[in-house]
Amino acid sequence: MTLFHAELRKLLTLPSARAGLAIGLVLPPGVMMISAVPEEARQDAGFVQLTLGVIGAIVLGVVSTSSEYTAEGDDAPGGRQITTSLTGTASRTLFLAAKAGALTLVVAVLALVTATLTLALTRPLPDNTVPRVVGVVVYWTFTALLAHGITLLTRTGVVPLTLLILNTSVVSVTFLLSKVTPLAAYFPDLAGSHMFLHRIASPVDLAPVTGGLVMAAWVVALLAVAAVVVHRRDA
Amino acid sequence: MTARTVGHTVHAELLKLATLPSVRLVVVATWVVTPLLDLVYARTATTASAVDVGLAPLGYSELGFVLLGALVAASEHDGQIRTSLTCVPNRVGLQLAKSLTLAALCLVVASVTAVLSLATARTARPDGPFAPFGPGATAIAHLVLTAVLAAAVATVLRAAVPALTLLLGYYVVAAPLIRGRLDLLPDTVDGRQALVVPACWALIAVATATAVFHRRDA
Question: What keyword terms does UniProt attach to this protein (chain B) (predicted)?
């Protein structure tokens, strides 16, 4: 519990994490306000905008980990937060669990607040709002955990940030790949978006729960690999 | 600065650029991914001409140039800047030399990228007219200006991750949304004055970065 609290404080006091919170909170409602919703997109109104806000979750997932590995500057050459963190908690498993837990909590709350704000601006409200909001919360949380896992492997924020932000674009890389092979529908972002979007140009039509499970499998696999690597590697 | 110091400064900056591992990685990735995107695009956009197929992936390659500019500028602020300023105390001169060197490197990288992209597109779509030089040159200049702008932003922010969040957030997410509503955005490319607007943005960004760098503690 102390560990969890420590990780929560670290995450919430990082300036770049605050930027992530701001992006997640402002982007979807802001875009919703300036968007005109065409008739055929009505059933996904608000939810499409929420897919953009996932950038906030990505930033949170990346910086919560990349900040551990950033050199502290000239006053402590070569000093990194991770050495302090691991002195504080010798168990790397507990450390990783606390970090993922804090990230999950922050991103889930952020997603819930943003989804409520965005849908409050959406008229008329699409069908099945409540289960789909749950889908959004799960999607944001899983995306943040994926970002966290990739950053644990790379130990720098640049690679995951680029890959994942690039892939939230309107014509994403995975979307392009899905034009080449139907297997691309099982990429975490495409599969996961079935949890809350109805109109997806995807070669395979997954049920919301199936999409969520596919994404969960990616998260579990990635975090497992990351955990093993963090265990075996010099910090 | 005398002509001799300018030459030395540019040479030193060029050496730094040429030996940064992240630069090599981004350049290779850009050169590998762009032709692949050409092939995907040629397969999906069946009615587009060869030139259009060749130019479309450059919208993604643009992100490689954002990365290039941001990483180069941010690497300097990992402590290297103290050494650089000890050698070249003229801050305005140093900053301008940096922008110039980056632009020169990016000109080469962008030219290769555009040639690769257009050649792949022509191979994938061999029939129809093919006049790539005008639009190709515009695209190359645009990529160079993008890198210079990104470097200026990263110089102001002094770190790669915040700079990339801002820049990628703009280029990937915000720009496609607001492009139809606002004019004079940094990535505006159309019409006769195609490059005037991006060039003005790059100039403003370099001027701002130089002023900030001049006034602030390193």
Answer: Membrane, Transmembrane, Transmembrane helix
Contact criterion met (CB below 8 Å) for A57 and A145: no
Among residues B142, B134, B149, B136, which one has the least CA distance to residue B189? B142
| B93 lies within 8 A of chain A by CB | no
Domain span at residue A91 reads: 2-232
For A16-49, give the DSSP string.
HHHHHHHHHHHHHHHHHHH----GGGGGGTTHHH
Between CA A234 and CA B96 the distance in angstroms is 40
ipTM higher than threshold 0.90? no
Helix (H, G, I), strand (E, B) or coil at B8: helix
Helix (H, G, I), strand (E, B) or coil at A80: strand
What length does chain B have?
218
CA distance B79 to chain A (A): 7
Q: Cβ of B80: how many Cβ atoms within 10 Å?
A: 11
CB B128 within 8 A of CB B49: yes
- Number of domains, chain A: 1
Instruction: Please tell me the pTM assigned to this model.
Output: 0.84
Token pair, residue B218, equals: 């390193």
Cα separation of A172 and B132, whole Å? 26
Asked whether the beta carbons of residue A20 and residue B165 sit closer than 8 angstroms, the reply is yes
Structure tokens at A99: 């970090």
Q: For chain B, positions 117-136, list CB contacts with chain A under 8 A.
A: none
Residue in B with minimal Cα distance to A181 = B40
Distance from chain centroid for Cα A180:
26
B71 token code pair: 């990483």
Cβ-based burial of B212 (10 A; exposed 0-12, middle 13-18, buried ≥19): middle
Peptide bond just before A160 cis, omega within 30 deg: no
Residue A48 to residue B12: CA distance in whole angstroms:
48
Q: Which two tokens stand for residue B163?
A: 């700079």
As a whole number of angstroms, the longest Cα–Cα distance in chain B is 58
- On whether the CB atoms of residues A99 and A148 are closer than 8 A, the answer is yes
Q: What is the total residue count of chain A? A: 235
Q: Give the containing element (helix H, strand E) for A197.
A: none
Residue A80: phi and psi, rounded to 5, are: -130, 150
Residues 18-37 (B) with a CB less than 8 A from some CB of A: 22, 37
> Distance (Å, rounded) from C-alpha A73 to C-alpha A192?
39
Q: What is the pLDDT of residues B23-64, one digit of tens each?
A: 999 999 999 999 988 888 888 777 778 888 888 888 889 999
Amino acid at A39: E
Return d(Cα A64, Cα A12) in angstroms, integer. Answer: 9
| Contact yes or no for A34 and B181 at CB 8 A | yes
